C-alpha cells in the first residue's frame, strides 16, 4: 500500500515491514543464535551475526503491559485517549495500540493479533492490536 | 590518577520562564559557580555541556562553543546529548579527563529550555528519546513509556498508585526549603490520587514538570584545589555508565533498569564503596515509578520493595537512606540537560553541610547521583565523598 502522502519519503525496512504486516505477513528477524530483532537491521544487535532470516510473526500474542494515554503528542491528539501496549509474541515483543477496545477495558494478559491501523489525527499507519 | 574535587556549583531557579534562552540560563549558572569557587575563568581548560532538545526548542545546534562564550570561557567546548542523562555523560567525561591528568580545571553543566514549546510541543520533543520508528510512531509518549513500566511493576511485584503518590509527597516536602525548586509546596496523597491521568496508571502528580533551567559545576584536580587553597570539601570518587537496548519492548525485563544497575556497580567499585555506605542519593525521578526502579537498581532497596520505601519512611528525610532531599526532578524540576549536573550540585551541598536539608544528614559522608536517559537505555551514576570528614 502506498503512503497517503506521496511526498513522504519512506523509511526502508520499517515501511516494508508495515507493508508485509498489512498483507498478513509480518515477520521478525532471527540470527543463528536465536536472538530476535525488528528491522531495519544489517546485523544482530546481540551478537553481530549478519546471518539474519525473516521468521513469521506468530498470529497472536499476549499483552505484557499497557497504558491508556490521555496526554498525547500532537501526532495523536485526535486519537486520545488510546491504549498503548507491549505485546509478547513469544520470540519477540512489539509496541502498538489496542484499536478495537474501549481503552479502559484493556488488561494485561489479553490475547491479541497484529493489525495495522491509521491514526485518526494524521492518517499515518500505526501498529495496532485487535482482540481475537 | 588525580582525585576530582567539586570546587563550585551554580543553579538557576528551575521553573517556567519560557522567554529565557538557554545561553542566558547557562550564563547565570556559571556566574554563580565561578563566584563561589574562586577559580578564575582563564584557568578553565575545557567545557563539557549537556543539552537534549536544543534543536527543537531553540533551533540551535552546535551548542558547545555557544555555551563557552556565554560563560565567558575561552576553552574548547563539547555538547553531550544522551536524552535526560545528557549532563551526567558530560560529568563522566570531565571526571575522567581530570583524573587522567589531561586537565586541572573544567567547566561542566547543562541547560534546557522547554516551556516555550508548550505542553504538546514539549511532549513531542521528549518523545524523541524513544525509538521513533517502533515506539513513537505507535503513539508512545515519555510518560506513557514509564506508565508501561509502572503497570508491569504492579503486575509483577504488586504496589499501588498510593505507593507512588507517597514518592511524590516525599519529594514535594523535601523541596520546601529549596529556593531554586519549581514547586515549594506540599501535596497530599489524596491530591496526587485525584489529579488528572496523564498515562495510566500515572497521574499529573506522578510526573515531573516541564522546566527551564541550568546547572554548572567547576571541577578541579585535587592538586589544583590544594595548591590554590580552594574550599572544595567534596570529591567525585566514583563514576559509572550503563547502556541497554533502545526500545523498552526489547529489554529482558519491563520493570527493571539494568543500565542503572551496571552504572551503579561500576561507580561503587570505582569509589571502593558499596550500597550500604551510601548516606543519601539524588536519583532520576522523572516519574514516581522511576525513583522506585532506580533505588532497586542501585541496591538501595530490594527488588520488589522499592515501591513501599517512601510510604514506610525508609527514603524520607529522616529515613535510613534519604532519597531526593533536593525535591528530585518531581518537585525541583527537570530542565533535562541540566538535571545530571544539578544532582551533583545538590549532593555536594548536602555533604558539605551547606544545603537547607543538610540537617537531616548531618553525619553523611557518602552520596550518590543517578541520571537516566529515556527509559534508561543510558544511565550514569556518580559517587561523591566528603574529603577528610
Characterise the protein shown here.
By secondary structure, chain A is mainly β. Chain A has one helix and eight strands; from the N terminus they run αββββββββ. Chain A folds into two domains: 7-57, no CATH class; 58-132, OB fold (Dihydrolipoamide Acetyltransferase, E2P) (Beta Barrel), CATH 2.40.50. Helix content of chain A is 7%, strand content 36%. In chain A, the strands form two sheets. Chain A has a five-stranded mixed beta barrel with strand order 4-5-6-8-7. Chain B is globular, with a radius of gyration of 19 Å. The mean pLDDT of chain B is 97. In chain B, a hairpin with a 2-residue loop joins strand 5 (197-199) and strand 6. Chain B has helices at residues 22-37, 54-58, 63-71, 86-99, 118-127, 142-157, 161-174, 189-194, 222-227, 258-271, 288-297, 328-332, 336-352, and strands at residues 4-11, 46-50, 77-80, 105-112, 197-199, 202-203, 213-221, 234-243, 280-282, 366-373, 378-386. Chain A binds chain B through residues 11, 14, 37-38, 45, 64-77, 79, 82, 84, 86, 93-97, 108, 119, 124, 126-127, and chain B through 119-121, 123-124, 127, 133-141, 143-144, 147-152, 155, 196-202, 245, 247-250, 254.
Amino acid at each position: 500500500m502506498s503512503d497517503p502522502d506521496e511526498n513522504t519519503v519512506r523509511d526502508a525496512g520499517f515501511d516494508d515491514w508495515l507493508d508485509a504486516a498489512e498483507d498478513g505477513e509480518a515477520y521478525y528477524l532471527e540470527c543463528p543464535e536465536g536472538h530476535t530483532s525488528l528491522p531495519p537491521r544489517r546485523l544482530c544487535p546481540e551478537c553481530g551475526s549478519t546471518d539474519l532470516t525473516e521468521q513469521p510473526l506468530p498470529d497472536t500474542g499476549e499483552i505484557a503491559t499497557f497504558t491508556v494515554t490521555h496526554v498525547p503528542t500532537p501526532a495523536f491528539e485526535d486519537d486520545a485517549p488510546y491504549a498503548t501496549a507491549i505485546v509478547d509474541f513469544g520470540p519477540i515483543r512489539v509496541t502498538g495500540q489496542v484499536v478495537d477496545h474501549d481503552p479502559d477495558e484493556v488488561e494485561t494478559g489479553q490475547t491479541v493479533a497484529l493489525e495495522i491501523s491509521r491514526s485518526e489525527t494524521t492518517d499515518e499507519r500505526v501498529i495496532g492490536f485487535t482482540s481475537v | 590518577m588525580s582525585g576530582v574535587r567539586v570546587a563550585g556549583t551554580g543553579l538557576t531557579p528551575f521553573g517556567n520562564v519560557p522567554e529565557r534562552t538557554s545561553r542566558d540560563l547557562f550564563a547565570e549558572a556559571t556566574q554563580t559557580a565561578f563566584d563561589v569557587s574562586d577559580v578564575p575563568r582563564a584557568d578553565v581548560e575545557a567545557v563539557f555541556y549537556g543539552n537534549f532538545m536544543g534543536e527543537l526548542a531553540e533551533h540551535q545546534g552546535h551548542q558547545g562553543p555557544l555555551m563557552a562564550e556565554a560563560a565567558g570561557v575561552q576553552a574548547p567546548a563539547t555538547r553531550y546529548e544522551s536524552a535526560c542523562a545528557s549532563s551526567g555523560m558530560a560529568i563522566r567525561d570531565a571526571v575522567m579527563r581530570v583524573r587522567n591528568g589531561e586537565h586541572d580545571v573544567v567547566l561542566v553543566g547543562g541547560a534546557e529550555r522547554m516551556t516555550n514549546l508548550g505542553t504538546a510541543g514539549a511532549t513531542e520533543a521528549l518523545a524523541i528519546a524513544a525509538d521513533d520508528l517502533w515506539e513513537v510512531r505507535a503513539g508512545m509518549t515519555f510518560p506513557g513509556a514509564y506508565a508501561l513500566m509502572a503497570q508491569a511493576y504492579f503486575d509483577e511485584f504488586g504496589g499501588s498508585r498510593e505507593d507512588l503518590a507517597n514518592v511524590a509527597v516525599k519529594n514535594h516536602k523535601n523541596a520546601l526549603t529549596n529556593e531554586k525548586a519549581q514547586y515549594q509546596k506540599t501535596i497530599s496523597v489524596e491530591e496526587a490520587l485525584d489529579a488528572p491521568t496523564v498515562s495510566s496508571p500515572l497521574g499529573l502528580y506522578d510526573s515531573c514538570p516541564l522546566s527551564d533551567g541550568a546547572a554548572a559545576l567547576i571541577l578541579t584536580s585535587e592538586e589544583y584545589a590544594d595548591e590554590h587553597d580552594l574550599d572544595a570539601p567534596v570529591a567525585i570518587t566514583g563514576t559509572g555508565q550503563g547502556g541497554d537496548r533502545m526500545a523498552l519492548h526489547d529489554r529482558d525485563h519491563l520493570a527493571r533498569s539494568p543500565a542503572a544497575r551496571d552504572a551503579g556497580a561500576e561507580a561503587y567499585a570505582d569509589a571502593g564503596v558499596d550500597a550500604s555506605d551510601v548516606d543519601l542519593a539524588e536519583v532520576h525521578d522523572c516519574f514516581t515509578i522511576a525513583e522506585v526502579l532506580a533505588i532497586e537498581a542501585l541496591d538501595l532497596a530490594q527488588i520488589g520493595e522499592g515501591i513501599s520505601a517512601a510510604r514506610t519512611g525508609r527514603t524520607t528525610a529522616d529515613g535510613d537512606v534519604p532519597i531526593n532531599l533536593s525535591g528530585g526532578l518531581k518537585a525541583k524540576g527537570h530542565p533535562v540537560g541540566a538535571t545530571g549536573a544539578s544532582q551533583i550540585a545538590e549532593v555536594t551541598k548536602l555533604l558539605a553541610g551547606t544545603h537547607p536539608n543538610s540537617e537531616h544528614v548531618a553525619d553523611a559522608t557518602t552520596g550518590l547521583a543517578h541520571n537516566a536517559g529515556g527509559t534508561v537505555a543510558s544511565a550514569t551514576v556518580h559517587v561523591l565523598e566528603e574529603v577528610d570528614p
